[in-house]
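Priority: medium. Attachment 1 of 2:
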């Protein structure tokens, strides 16, 4: 840290900034109370249209989607999607207390679930998004002790659960949710914005899915979100 401060000090002196406490205070103020810049109309849909806009944009990005009423319906929705793609009834899932509220064992006793980081043999992963962004049909996922980033990139098939109440209009609202979720603590080590399955058009401009990650992305929207099932406000 001593060497770092020495280097930064030389840069400040070279720029003629010295110890400008007023400038530092302004930076701290802007970080503490961020303001949105220009937001395009597509990122500001009426509240009643956000979910439909999100579905429209996600489908355009080659996602598949399902809507369910609550967490109790999640196991059946996942099993139906796996069966529809002739995939084994097995998945690796984030160790998320919210996801554990779904009655996995009671509703789908033949579905094999392992919690934690995926391995090479895992074909399907499941985790939960912090937000859905209607502007582009994008999912925001934050890493954490029970939600490794590799869940979103290693398996060929990725299932993401998002609460309907967490679908916002634009990116600015999604980042506001991210800051609020941390409640003054440090931000996650990784925040991933995912729009559709992995793809590339590098070779002859032909789109190939699954180039650098999942070749299928399935989104399950929960109308009455997980925390709503506990009587709390949806997140």
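Attachment 2 of 2:
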């Amino acid at each position: 840290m001593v060497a770092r401060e020495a280097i930064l000090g030389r840069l400040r002196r070279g720029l003629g900034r010295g110890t400008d406490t007023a400038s530092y205070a302004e930076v701290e103020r802007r970080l503490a109370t961020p303001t949105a810049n220009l937001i395009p109309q597509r990122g500001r849909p009426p509240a009643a249209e956000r979910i439909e806009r999100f579905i429209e944009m996600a489908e355009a990005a080659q996602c598949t989607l399902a809507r369910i009423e609550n967490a109790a319906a999640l196991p059946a929705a996942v099993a139906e999607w796996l069966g529809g793609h002739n995939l084994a009834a097995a998945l690796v899932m984030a160790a998320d207390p919210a996801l554990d509220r779904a009655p996995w064992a009671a509703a789908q006793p033949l579905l094999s679930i392992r919690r934690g980081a995926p391995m090479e043999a895992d074909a399907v992963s499941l985790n939960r998004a912090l937000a859905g962004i209607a502007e582009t049909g994008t999912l925001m996922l934050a890493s954490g002790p029970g939600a490794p980033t590799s869940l979103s990139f290693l398996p060929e098939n990725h299932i993401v659960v998002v609460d309907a109440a967490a679908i916002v209009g634009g990116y600015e609202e999604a980042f506001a949710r991210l800051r609020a979720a941390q409640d003054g603590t440090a931000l996650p080590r990784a925040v991933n914005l995912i729009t559709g399955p992995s793809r590339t058009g590098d070779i002859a401009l032909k789109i190939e899915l699954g180039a650098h990650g999942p070749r299928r992305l399935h989104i399950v929207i929960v109308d009455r979100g997980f925390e709503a099932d506990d009587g709390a406000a949806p997140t």
